[in-house]
Amino acid sequence: MAVLAIAGASAHASVLLTGTRVIFSAEQKEKTLQFTNPDDHPNLVQVWVDTGSPDSTLATADAPFIANPQIFRIEAKAGQMVRLLYTGGDELPQDRESVFFLNFTQVPALSAASQDANKLVLIFSSRLKVFYRPKGLAGSPSQMAGQLQFHLADGQLRVDNPTGYHAVVRQASLMVGGSRIPLAESVTIAPKSSVSWKIGRSGDLGQARLRIVLVNDYGVDVVDELPLH
After folding, report:
1. Contact 8, 123 (CB under 8 A)
2. pTM of the full predicted structure?
3. pLDDT at 2 (0 to 100)
C-alpha cells in the first residue's frame, strides 16, 4: 500500500472547515471549529496549530493552542465539532494581534479487509491563519481601509498600518484615468508596520485613486476606492 501526502489549499481536500480564517478573541476561553465530510467514506483527521513552520506536525506543534479532539474519525456525509483552546498566558503582545497557523490533515479510514490491498492512499493537508486578538485594541477591523495610511513618493506607494490588526489585502491597484496599475495581491500587512509597493509607471499620479480589496473577519472581500493625498 502506497501513501502520498499532498499539502496546500490547491490540493482539493474533501474534509472542509467552516470559514477561511480563525479569529480567537482573548475574551474567549475556546473557539468551536466545524468540520464536515462530504465524502461517501469516513476520513481520519488530525488538527494542530503552529507558529509558522509549514513542515510542522502534530508532534512538533509549537503554538499555545490545542485542539480537542486532536485526532478523530469523521463519518461519511457527517460533521465534527472541535474545540480550539488557548493554553498560553499573557506572554503574547497585548497591543496587537498575533498570528498562528491551523493545520488539518485527512486520510481515508480504511477497513480491515482493505488495509493490505495494493492501493494508493492520499493524505491531504490544509492550512489557514489563526489571529489571536487581545482585549481592548483601538480602532475596528471592519473599518480597516479608513485606518490605513497611504503616501505616494519616489515611484512607490507606502502603506502604514498603525492599528493593532492585520490588514489582509486581496488586491490593490491605482486607478488613473481609465487605466489600472496593479500594486499588490494576496499580502498581509502586520500591525504597526509598513510596506511599500512599487508603481510600474511614471508620470502625473495626482488624480490617482487607490482601489483596495481587503478580506474581513468572515473571509468576505470588502472593496474601497480612496483618493490619495
Report:
1. no
2. 0.87
3. 45
